[in-house]
Amino acid sequence: MTSVDVPHSSRSAVLTVSDVIEETADTKSVVFAIPDDLRDRFTYKPGQFLTLRIPSDRTGSVARCYSLASSPFTDDLPKVTIKRTADGYGSNWVCDNIAVGDTMEVLPPSGVFTPKSLDDDVLLFGAGSGITPVISILKAALSQGRGNVVLVYANRDEKSVIFADELRELAAKHPTRLTTIHWLETVQGLPTAQQLARLVAPYTAYHSFMCGPGPFMDTVHAALAALDVPRARVHAEVFNSLAGDPFTDSAPAELTEEDEAGAATVDVELDGEIHHLKWPRKQTLVDIMLAKGIDVPYSCQEGECGSCACTVIEGKVQMDNTEILDPEDIENGYILGCQSHPVTDHLRIEF
């Protein structure tokens, strides 16, 4: 029995596991009950993720991000799906230990891997457990949108296909809108960029979303580039293991008068509201927004999860860690709020 009683930070909450579903031999889904007083905090968009606090004998705990495989429109409760990996401490711990009735500490939903409009035609790529955020988008688009949905789903073999029954049911329910293309390594080998480009050539006007192992996503990127799909219509979800602890409240850095005097100014648009702020050069954008009590989206504060991604509309920043962003993302003005410091004296930023 795994039990947590009190959250370690003001942002996290303790949730009860209401169901554990064995999806495949090495994959389980964990469903969380959400008390009425936490429903607003745990409202989520399709494609977002939860961050779980997982006990560790060595460090006390580790934080791991797992995508929501549920849809906020068709599923009553949020569900994360976790596949074992050979050296994955978090995934193996969850699959070995979590049971119905256990409690876990969880951060609210986060992430920007979500369509701006569910009416768009979407081309979805998933490999292995990368199907998790993809199926959330797929179900949301089919239930709420009007566009077509094409899914390319790669797996090692037929037994590895997560959500196989659910995908069959959705295909039967939406025969004119959903096209599912399975790619099995045991049958077709690993997909090449040329093969994927031929496969998805009819769908180049669609918005593309991809999640899976790095080599698979590199192949998808190459296929879409060969088809001249604009980078603005290509969205990738990337997770790194979090080294720090997002389940602690971090105190704002102390600033000197010199820091304040040399501060930049920034106009930040978040949820339709514009905030006019001073931005000291030593602090990150997330730091200054938290200090002002603004509910900025963030999770790890290490530049490893992408929760705080936003766009520079005017001005220039310097980032400490850019590993999770593609060079094309940076060229298009995407930044990580938790890693960014102002370079110019005035900036305008949109979340």
Question: What's the helix and strand layout?
Answer:
Blueprint: E1 13-24, E2 27-33, E3 49-56, E4 60-67, E5 79-83, H1 89-97, E6 103-110, E7 122-127, H2 131-144, E8 149-155, H3 164-173, E9 178-184, H4 185-188, H5 193-200, E10 207-211, H6 214-226, E11 234-237, H7 257-261, E12 264-270, E13 273-279, H8 285-291, E14 309-314, E15 317-319, H9 327-331, E16 334-336, E17 340-342, E18 346-350
Parallel strand pairs: 7-8, 7-10, 8-9, 10-11, 12-18
Antiparallel strand pairs: 1-2, 1-6, 2-5, 3-4, 3-6, 12-13, 14-16, 14-18, 15-17
Notes on the structure:
The chain has 351 residues and is α/β, with parallel strands linked by helices. The protein folds into three domains: 13-109, Translation factors (Elongation Factor Tu (Ef-tu), domain 3), CATH 2.40.30.10; 122-237, Nucleotide-binding domain of ferredoxin-NADP reductase (FNR) module (Rossmann fold); 257-350, Beta-grasp domain (Ubiquitin-like (UB roll), Roll). It has nine helices and 18 strands. It has helices at 89-97, 131-144, 164-173, 185-188, 193-200, 214-226, 257-261, 285-291, 327-331, and strands spanning 13-24, 27-33, 49-56, 60-67, 79-83, 103-110, 122-127, 149-155, 178-184, 207-211, 234-237, 264-270, 273-279, 309-314, 317-319, 334-336, 340-342, 346-350. The strands form four sheets. A six-stranded antiparallel beta sheet has the order 4-3-6-1-2-5, with helices on one face. The protein has a five-stranded parallel beta sheet with strand order 9-8-7-10-11, sandwiched between helices. A five-stranded mixed beta sheet has the order 13-12-18-14-16. Strand 8 (149-155), helix 3 (164-173) and strand 9 form a beta-alpha-beta unit. It starts with 12 loop residues before the first strand and ends with a strand.
